[in-house]
Amino acid sequence: MKWKPRNLREFAQMVVGDAEHFHYRSSKYITEFFEDCDLEYVHQGETRSIWAAEKIAEILAMPSASPMAMPDPFVHVIKRLLDRSEGVNDDAERSLALASLNTVLAREGWSAFYDEHGIGQIKHIATNTIAQMANPHRPFTPSELQRRDQLIGYLNRCSEDELIEDVLLPLFRQLGFHRITAAGHKDKALEYGKDVWMKYTLPTLHVLYFGIQAKKGKLDASGISTRNVAEIYTQLTMMLGHEIFDPETSRRVLVDHAFIVAGGEITKQARNWIGNKLDASKRSQVMFMDRDDILNLFVVTNLPLPKGALPPTSSWNVEDVSF
Q: Strands (DSSP E) along 183-301, which ranges?
C-alpha cells in the first residue's frame, strides 16, 4: 500500500506532534511511540517529521490480509495515535484530533473512528470493512452480550428474506466481500440454488466467487426427516453447477465456494449427510455458517443491529403528564 507524499507528511506530523491537537514528541518519545506499536524503530536525531514519514511508508508497505485491510502494525499506530488519555487542551475526547486525522485518511479511502470501548479503529470507506477484525471467539463484554441477545431475538422471529437482507448482506460486506447480489423473491426461479452471490479479492488480486444458500431455521438430518437438508443439497448442487454473470468483467463464471448459512443450528448429522452426498472435489468447496457464527461475527465487527432487533422506543412525553 502506497500513500501520496502529502498525506504521508501530514500523518507523520501528527505522530511527532507537529500538528494541532496532537502531543509534541521529542526524539525519545517518538522511539517510545513506535515501541508501543511493537515496532523496533529508533529515532537518532534525524528531522523528526521526515524520519517519521519514512517509517510510516515502510509500515504501509508491509503485507496485509487483503486490499481492503491495513497491515497490522499500521492499525497499532492508529490505536496509539488516538489514545484518549492524550487529549490536548480542550480536546479531552480527541474529537478534534480524530477529525484532523480523518481529513488525511479520507484522501486515501480510509476513515478512523472510536469503537464502543473507546479504542481507535480504522475502516475502508468504500467497503466499510474494518482494517483489523477482532477474534469472534474471544470473551464478550456485557454490552456485546446484550447486543448478541437482541440479535438472537431477531433471528427467532425474522423471515428468510430479512435474514438475508438485514443480517447476512451487511455482515459479508463488513467482512470484505463485494459485488454482493441477492436474488430476492422476484428472481427466485432464476437463482439456480443460490440466494446470494458475491466476490472476494485475494491479496494477489485474484478473485474468488461465492454463493450463499440461506435457511431461516435449524438444519438437521435426523432419522425422522432429512427433508430440509435434502433440499439444501439439491440447491447446493445447482449452485456449484450453474454459471453466474459478472457484469464487472462481462463474462460468465462458476462459483468457487458455497456457503450454507442457517439462522439456527446446523447439526453434525446434517454436515455429515451433505458431505457424504458430495464427491471429494465438491466437498472442499462447501462451507457452513450457523447461528453462533453469525452472532459472533456480527458482534465483533461492531455492525449496527437491524431495526427489528432494537427495543421499541417509548412514545411517552413528559409534557403529557399532569401533576
A: 196-201, 207-215, 243-246, 251-254, 257-262, 286-289
